[in-house]
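Morning, I've got a small favour to ask if you have a moment. You're getting the sequence in one-letter code plus the fold written as C-alpha cells. Thanks so much in advance, here it is:

===
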Amino acid sequence: MATTTKKSTSRSKTNTSKAKSSTKQAASKKPTVKKVNSGTSVQKKTAKASSVSKVKSFRAAEVTLHSLRSMNIAAVGLFVLLALLAGYLMSSASYMLTIGHVAKDDLASKTQTVFAPAVQPVLDIEVRWMVVGILLLSAVFPILYLSKLKERYAEYLNKTRIQPFRWIDFAITSALMTSVAAILSGVNDIATLEILAGVVGISAVVAIIAERQNNSSSKLVRSAFLTGAVTVLLPWLLIAMYATTTIVYGMVRSPWYVYAIYITLLVGVALRWRNQRMHLKGANHIIVERNYIAITILTKAAFAIILIAGLAK
C-alpha cells in the first residue's frame, strides 16, 4: 500500500511539473506579440522621421532661394561698382571700326575698270564704354529677379528645367564680351563683329532648346546641347586666327591683358556648359542657378578687373 501511495505521489508531482512547464511555455509565447507591436512602432517612427526630413529639405530649399536673392543683390552691387571704376580709371584708348567694300583701282584701271577690296572707317569706339555698358547690362536681370520677375523666377527654378532669362543675359553680355576680345585681337570689321555676336546669340537660343528637350525627358537628350557647345566656340576660332597672325605676320605679341581675357572668357564658357550639362542630367535646379550666378559674377568681374588694370590711365 505504501508503495502504491508513493507511486501515485510521484505521478502527481510529475503531472504538476508538466503543467508548470506548459504554463512557462505559454508565458514565453507572449513576447512574440510584443515584437510585432515593436516592429509597428519602428515603422511609425520611420514614417515620422521621413516626414520630418521632407520638412527639413523644404526648409533647406527656402534657405537656398534666400541665398540666391543675396547673391543677386551682391551681383548688382559689384557690377555697378566695377562700372563706376571702369568709367573713371580706364583710359580713352579707342579702336577704329571699319566696313569692307569694293572700290575702283584707279592705277590699274587703264583700259578697263579694275576693282579692288577697300575699307571705309565708320566710327571710333572706346573700350571703356563697352566695359561700362556690359557691366550695367549685367545688373539688369538680377534687379528684375529681385523685383518684377521675382515670382516667375522662383517658379522656373522650382517646377521646370527651363530658365530662359539666364540665356537671354548670356546672349547679350557674352556677345559683347566676345566682341571686345575680338576688337582687342585686331578684328575691326563691323560685319565680322556682328556675325560673331550673332553666333553667340544662336548658341544661347540652342541652350534654351536643349532645356526644353530635356524638361520632360528621363534621359539626357544631347543633340541641342552638343550643337550649342560647338556653336559657342566658333567665334574663338576666328579670334585664335587673328591672335596667331599677329605673332606670325605682325611680328609682335598682343598685350598681356588680351591673353588674360582669352583665358577668362574661355574658362567661363566651359564652366557654363558644364553646369548646363549637370542641369540637363537632373541636378537640383536651384543649385544649378546658384552655380550659374557664381560663374557669371566671377567671369564678368575678372573681365572688368583685367581691362581696368590693362587699360588704366
